[in-house]
């Protein structure tokens, strides 16, 4: 896939943050983009500004993935949406807060992966699963977040194995942003929490990651993964402002 023109691409959570940066990059390449999110008002604004199709829905609805994939038949699915757990040290976490990310992100990941395999999507399709650098380094203020993001990474490996055994040409790949993106609302909130914990300014905390990676640059990196033959066969890719894209397939899975 060396061009995205007229490719049908579904992006969950594509109306804000990193997802919106990706949608902007896809629209510039003349892809046929559908954005799925819960917030109807933000969806309407995204549709009006970028000319994309939109669907209001809950990514963790067990019936939605099969119904939507069957209707849209996308060439690419990007699972970017997820919950935002409260930020607190482990001794202050309630179980309901700690496991929220599992009940949303991991549950949704399972439903969407199963739908892609059971429909199945067309040969040559790709499913990009959003993970996080926390899956490698941990995230002590985010409850079960790091473990959940690692589980999604593992699920992509399981899905590739299942696709091979089923004789399906569907590729599941993992997107691993390896820095806090302060330009997003959630990233700024995370940066504030960790800067207080470490006794740093927000700018000082963010500088530890090196060069920033704004949402639009994240989108450009994902476009490269979809169009550059060098990334056609890998499973996990780290994304960073400094080095761009790096394979993480040497990280045990």
Describe it:
Helix content is 45%, strand content 17%. Helix 1 links the parallel strand 1 and strand 2. The longest helix is centred in the middle third of the chain and has 22 residues. The relative contact order is 0.14. The chain has a single domain, classed as NAD(P)-binding Rossmann-like Domain (Rossmann fold, 3-Layer(aba) Sandwich). With 253 residues, the protein is of the alpha/beta class. Strands 3-2-1-4-5-6-7-8 form an eight-stranded mixed sheet, sandwiched between helices. The model has no long low-confidence stretch (mean pLDDT 96). It contains ten helices and eight strands. The protein is globular and about 50 Å long.
What key attributes describe this structure?
Rossmann fold; 8 strands; 45% helix; 8-stranded mixed beta sheet; 253 residues
* Helix content range: 40-55%
How many separate helices? 10
Q: Which structural class should the secondary elements be placed in?
A: alpha/beta
State the total count of DSSP E strands.
8
CATH superfamily: NAD(P)-binding Rossmann-like Domain
Spell out the helices and strands N to C.
EHEHEHEHHEHHEHHHEE
* Approximate strand percentage: 15-25%
Q: What is the CATH topology assignment?
A: Rossmann fold
Low-confidence stretches: none
Outline type: globular
The CATH class is identified as Alpha Beta
Largest sheet: 8 strands, mixed
How does CATH name the architecture? 3-Layer(aba) Sandwich
Overall number of domains? 1
Rg:
17 Å
* Main β-sheet, spatial strand arrangement: 3-2-1-4-5-6-7-8
Q: State the distance separating the first and last CA atoms.
A: 26 Å
Average the pLDDT over all residues and give the rounded result.
96
């Amino acid at each position: 896939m060396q061009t995205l023109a007229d490719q049908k691409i579904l992006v969950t959570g594509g109306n804000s943050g990193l997802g919106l940066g990706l949608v902007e990059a896809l629209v510039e390449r003349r892809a046929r983009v559908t954005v799925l999110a819960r917030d109807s008002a933000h969806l309407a604004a995204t549709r009006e500004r970028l000319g994309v199709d939109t669907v209001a829905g809950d990514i963790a609805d067990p019936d939605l993935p099969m119904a939507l994939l069957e209707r849209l038949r996308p060439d690419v699915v990007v699972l970017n949406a997820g919950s935002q757990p409260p930020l607190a040290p482990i001794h202050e976490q309630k179980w309901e807060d700690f496991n929220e990310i599992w009940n949303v992100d991991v549950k949704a990941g399972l439903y969407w992966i199963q739908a892609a395999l059971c429909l199945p999507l067309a040969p040559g399709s790709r499913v990009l699963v959003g993970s996080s650098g926390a899956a490698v380094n941990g995230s002590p203020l985010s409850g079960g977040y790091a473990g959940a993001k690692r589980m999604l990474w593992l699920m992509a490996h399981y899905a590739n194995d299942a696709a091979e055994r089923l004789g399906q040409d569907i590729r599941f790949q993992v997107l691993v942003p390896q820095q806090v993106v302060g330009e997003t609302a959630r990233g700024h909130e995370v940066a504030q929490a960790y800067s207080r914990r470490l006794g740093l300014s927000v700018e000082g905390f963010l500088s530890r990651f090196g060069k920033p990676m704004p949402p639009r640059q994240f989108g450009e990196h994902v476009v490269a993964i979809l169009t550059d033959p060098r990334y056609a066969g890998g499973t996990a890719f780290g994304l960073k402002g400094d080095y761009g894209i790096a394979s993480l397939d040497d990280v045990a899975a």
